Amino acid sequence: MLALNFTFEREVIGATSRCGExxxxxxxxxxxxxPQESGVNVTIRKxxxxxxxxxxxxxxxxxxxxxxxxxxLQLEGRNIYDDALVTVTNVQVAPDLSQAKIYLSxxxxxxxxxxxxxxxxQHHRIKQLxxxxxxxxxxxxxxxxxxxxxxxxxxxxxxxxxxxxxxSSPEDTDDE
Length: 176
Hints:
This protein is an alpha/beta fold and 176 residues long. The chain folds into two domains: 4-51 and 153-168, no CATH class; 56-149, K homology (KH) domain (GMP Synthetase, Chain A, domain 3), CATH 3.30.300. 37% of the residues lie in helices and 25% in strands. It has four helices and seven strands; from the N terminus they run ββββαββααβα. The chain has helices spanning 56-80, 112-121, 123-134, 151-168, and strands at 4-11, 18-19, 23-24, 40-47, 85-93, 99-107, 143-148. The chain has a three-stranded mixed sheet, with helices on one face. Strands 1-4 form a two-stranded parallel ribbon. Strands 2-3 form a two-stranded antiparallel ribbon. Strand 5 and strand 6 (99-107) form a beta hairpin. The protein is flat. The relative contact order is 0.14. Mean pLDDT is 75; it is low at 1-48.
C-alpha cells in the first residue's frame, strides 16, 4: 500500500484560523506546513487571505475585481507578454477591502514565472488601467498582488501519479 502525504503551504493575511487537528496558522504572511508522515510527499501551494466567513460585500468586490482585471489583461496583455494565455482564476479580498490577491493561470508557455515577472514590471500601468475601470464600483482602489495559480498543474501531477499507481497494481479479475 502506498501512502500519500499532502503538504499545504499557505500565506495568511488577516485573522487567525485553525487547520487540521493541532496545527494553527499565524498572522501576517506566516508559511504553514501540515505535519508529514512517511510516503510520497505532494506539495500544494495555496496563497489566500484567511477569512473563514467571507462577507457578501467581499464576494461582490472579488467578482468585480476578477471581471475588470480580466478585461485589462485582455486589452493590454499582448503588449506585456507575448504568446502566453493568462486567465484570472480567483480573487481574494481582505475584510477591509484594501488588499486583494489575484490568482492567474498561465498557459502556452514553459516559463510561467517569467510571464509573472513581466506582469510585475508593468504593475503600475496595470494598476492605472485597472483603477480607471473599477473607480465607479469601489471607494478605494485596493492594492493587489498577483500569484500563479498552479492547481491545474497539481491536478495533472496527481492524476499522473494515480495512473502510475493503477498501472503498477495487479488487476483484479472477476471469475464469478
